[in-house]
Write a structure and sequence with these properties.
The chain has 340 residues and is an alpha/beta fold. It has two domains: 137 residues, Nucleotidyltransferase, domain 5; 172 residues, ATPase, nucleotide binding domain (Nucleotidyltransferase, domain 5, 2-Layer Sandwich), CATH 3.30.420. It is built from ten helices and ten strands. The strands form two sheets. The protein has a five-stranded mixed beta sheet, sandwiched between helices. Strands 8-7-6-9-10 form a five-stranded mixed beta sheet. A hairpin with a 4-residue loop joins strand 6 and strand 7. Helix 4 crosses helix 5 and helix 5 crosses helix 7. It is globular, with a radius of gyration of 20 Å.
């Protein structure tokens, strides 16, 4: 089975071709237009998707050495995300599927991340705990199959990636903030300044990062009223990064222990953070837990994970006819009701 997948939920226009679980191509066009605003502007994102989607799909087909006649189904992200951005991808995919008279498979973006570890390892066994952590989402899941999972805990307010981006904006570092702060933190001391860790009660699997943003703002106002913090920028970045990473690591392994599993899968844009990766690996080795983190290209928003999951869904349906109605809608909500 050969699937063309399209992802346009936020500020990456992506397309991929996946054949029998193998990624033949994975093209991602990241939008740089938002850097001047310190965050994603929905209208600008939608226009950029309109401008790039045909090109990105053509590139994905070309790199995979496939043509449209080779495609057996089209997968597309329909939730969650920016409504206008989702509509661009969904309408493009719908029109193409109707033209080719092939199945159209709607995919939840978070579910795509949830199973993205399988793109780099076929050794992952159910059940497992998964941490999905990105600019818009921070959640822990208990996953028992390709169609069954439950939510163990989520952020009560801001996502971890948002905390990086908003802190970076306060520091005048630019957008996206995560990679910039990660780089600067390498030359800093993570314990130089102590910032709050939210929801750190022993039994809690919930997250909270709004208090951290407030604490950073107050810290800068009290200690650097003139804005002359640049001599200490490495230590500030390292300390803030530690306050973001520590709850992610501790709660993930608490969830592994609670659910009595031996496997942790971590995905989403923030899983590319070097400090998070090193701390996860350190804890995994200490606790003898199997850890899977996708390659960087599969951490960020991408279409390969969308195509991979679509193939699994078609196989479970036993027939692609289930996806021939083309009656799909987009939903900007963060998460669907958890599956049981």
């Amino acid at each position: 089975m050969t699937i063309l997948a399209i992802e346009s939920s936020c500020d990456e226009t992506a397309a991929a071709v996946v054949k029998n679980g193998v990624v033949l191509s994975n093209i991602v066009s990241s939008q740089t237009e938002h850097s001047a605003f310190g965050g994603v502007i929905p209208e600008i994102a939608s226009r950029a998707h309109l401008r790039m989607i045909s090109t990105v799909v053509d590139q994905a087909l070309s790199k995979s050495q496939c043509t449209l006649t080779d495609i057996d189904a089209i997968a597309v992200t329909t939730s969650p995300g920016l409504a206008g951005a989702l509509l661009v991808g969904a309408n493009f995919a719908k029109g193409l599927a109707m033209r080719l008279q092939i199945p159209l498979v709607p995919i939840n973006h978070i579910e795509g991340h949830l199973y993205s570890g399988f793109l780099v390892s076929e050794q992952i066994e159910f059940p497992f705990v998964s941490l999905v952590v990105s600019g818009g989402h921070t959640s822990l899941f208990y996953v028992t199959s390709f169609h069954e999972y439950s939510i163990l805990g989520s952020t009560r307010d801001d996502a971890a990636g948002e905390a990086f981006d908003k802190t970076s904006k306060m520091l005048g570092l630019g957008y996206p903030g995560g990679p910039i702060m990660d780089k600067l933190a390498k030359d800093g001391h993570p314990d130089r300044f102590i910032f709050p860790r939210g929801m750190m009660q022993k039994d809690s699997l919930q997250f909270s990062y709004s208090g951290l943003k407030t604490a950073v703002r107050v810290f800068l106002q009290n200690n650097y009223p003139e804005g002359n913090f640049h001599d200490n920028i490495h230590n500030i970045c390292a300390s803030v990064q530690e306050a973001i990473v520590e709850p992610l690591v501790k709660k993930s392994f608490n969830a592994v222990k609670r659910m009595k599993v031996n496997t942790l899968v971590v995905a989403g844009g923030v899983s590319a953070n070097s400090r998070l990766r090193s701390e996860l690996l350190r804890f995994a080795q200490k606790k003898s837990v199997k850890l899977y983190i996708p390659d960087i290209q599969y951490c960020i928003d991408n279409a390969a994970m969308i195509g991979f999951l679509a193939e699994k869904k078609i196989i479970e349906q036993k027939t692609p006819d289930h996806y021939m109605s083309y009656n799909i809608t987009v939903n900007s909500s963060a998460l669907r009701s958890p599956k049981k």
